[in-house]
Amino acid sequence: MIDFNADIVSYKSLGNIELERHIDFYLDEIYKNFTVEVKEYMTPYPFNEKMYAYFLEAGTIIISTNSEGGIIAVGCNEHYQGKYKKKLYAGITMKELILLTKSQRILNGTLIVDEDYGMSFTLPSPYDEMADYIESIPLDLKLNEIFVSDDSFWEPKEK
Q: For the chain, what are the domain ranges?
């Protein structure tokens, strides 16, 4: 059952919506219980794959699927009430995030914390384009969006 208070679980789920499930598993519940907007988009070159995003309650939860309907990411905005590891949440300030985590890394417009590549904070504009160093992000900046996915391909490989 979809829950706006459920824990955020790296590499696995957000809102009790699980990665790698087919969207069909959730469609009845989604359309019966929530206001839903569906958007189609294309991934950037060189992939050019058609994707879909399901926005529940104006983006409180965002479900991203591939063209076959497989769930590849689940995100939330600051209206979501669940937390990651009982401490991190959408709407947290940069200062609080730094205080509550051991490490932060900027990758492709997102923040990876504690080397966990299964959960990320989306950096808002213009910081998604211009921030290369954690120090360049204002401490009072609110991070209003979290995504759970498998971004382990970004993880540095040991030599």
A: 13-76, 92-151
